[in-house]
Write the structure tokens for this entry.
Amino acid sequence: MYFAALLARTEDGWEASDTELDDVETLSDLADLAREASPDDDTVLVLIEQEDAWFGVVRIDGEDDPRIYVSDAAAAARSSYGEILLTDELLGKEPGDDDADLESLDLDGTEDGDPDDDDDDDTGAETVPHSPVGDTEILDDLGVSEKELRALDADDALNSIAEALGASEVLETVR
């Protein structure tokens, strides 16, 4: 089960809105959706969680590039919404660098299936760490330090973040 919300900082504090990510296919689409929530180019946070598995924070400040933090890259990689956040840059890969994937293919004429070669079906998963990735200082200026962010548990992270921002009540209204 997924939950996604937008928190937009305004003159009057934080405003929350739940958001539907069905039409979001890229990080650029997500950034555009977030920017629409704040016509004054204020800070917008996109908070995404998959129940008890991982959470992600995307921060949009005006027209700046999105800043991203994902609590568990490997868990997020198995999720359609997580894949949006896990850009090549975030994973430390060169954009479009699929050489590792090509090298893992067995092109010796046994493509139809060699029963002895079923050992390494998860070659793509090896490149995605079972750890946090992204900008660990994404919320520093908003009251959540790098250490606190890394210590958050996936099942209560968004509530903890909202509480630190003083936005727990507005987040609860869209939950």
In short: The first strand starts at residue 2 and ends at 10. The two ends are 13 Å apart (CA to CA). Residues 52 and 155 are 4 Å apart (CA to CA). Confidence is low (pLDDT under 50) at residues 100-105, 113-125.
